[in-house]
Amino acid sequence: MLRYRTIPVTAFAQNCSIVWCDEAMEAAVIDPGGDLDTLLEEARRLGVALKAIWLTHAHIDHAGATAELARRLSLPIIGPHEGDRFWIDALPQQGAMFGFPPAETFTPTRWLVDGDTVRIGRCELAVRHCPGHTPGHVVFHSKDAQRAFVGDVLFVGSIGRTDFPGGNHAQLLASIRERLWPMGDETVFIPGHGPEGRFGQERRSNPFVGDRG
Ligand SMILES: [Zn+2]
Ligand SMILES: [Zn+2]
Predict the structure, then answer these.
(1) Mean pLDDT, to the nearest integer, of 107-125?
(2) Does residue 120 contact residue 20 with C-beta atoms inside 8 Å?
(3) Is the Cβ–Cβ distance between 68 and 106 less than 8 Å?
(4) Burial class (CB in 10 A: 0-12, 13-18, 19+), 130
(5) Which intervals carry biased composition (Basic and acidic residues) (predicted)?
(6) What is the dihedral of CA 96, 100, 101, 103, to 10 degrees?
(7) pLDDT in tens, 56-93
(8) How remote is the CA of residue 152 from the centroid of ligand 2, in Å?
(9) What is the pLDDT of residue 102?
(10) What is the mean pLDDT of residues 151-174?
(11) What is the pTM (predicted TM-score) of this model?
């Protein structure tokens, strides 16, 4: 069974999640934007072995500590989609743009495409490509656990910004409607910022992408 713990990191309170298979006690870190010592301490406390880094997209609050974590623990970097290559290359500049210390760039061990799966222990999650906030944004969906890690695609009562380079508002709405909603109304989503929600509730009440919007 998939379990997870969400830890807000960086000055942007980005929801980094440690996700693990409770049979194998092996874990992946989704979006290690920063605060590595906090993340490593949490993994130790949970008693899980970190095996991989999974990235939803390459904004610095999500990917800023990726290179350092990968190097320190010799972890593979899985994702995002190759559409975010320019954001990875720009990580050092994003530090200045968003008021962060400079971050190292890196090359993912594996780029992801829509329909891929990622695995941790005995748990498998589906990868959906959800461009709009960034061109290479992906989300990770566990059908068994009814959980989706959606980065900055969707928030409770809001949606991701599309005013950065490569952003596209219409594409973001299509990603949400065509790739998130089919995961089911009862699916709990863990956004990149703020509290968890359920897709059904967002369909009813989200002013940007709800069914009545
Ligand atoms: Zn972002
Ligand atoms: Zn973010």
Answers:
(1) 98
(2) yes
(3) no
(4) buried
(5) 195-213
(6) -80
(7) 999 999 999 999 999 999 999 999 999 999 999 999 99
(8) 5
(9) 79
(10) 97
(11) 0.98
- Does residue 211 sit within a domain? no
- 88 in any annotated domain: yes
User: Ligand 1: distance of its center to the CA of 34 in Å?
Assistant: 14
Which-ligand-closest: CA of 160? Answer: 1
**Residue 147 domain-assigned (yes or no):** yes
Query: In the chain, how many domains are there?
Result: 1
What are phi and psi for residue 3, nearest 5 degrees? Answer: -125, 165
Which among 24, 76, 71, 25 has a CA at the least distance from the CA of 55? Answer: 76
| Residue 76, in any domain of the structure | yes
Residue 63's CATH number: 3.60.15.10
First to last CA, the chain: 36
Is a pLDDT exceeding 80 seen at residue 213?
no
74: containing domain? 2-205
Cα 24 to middle of ligand 1, angstroms: 31
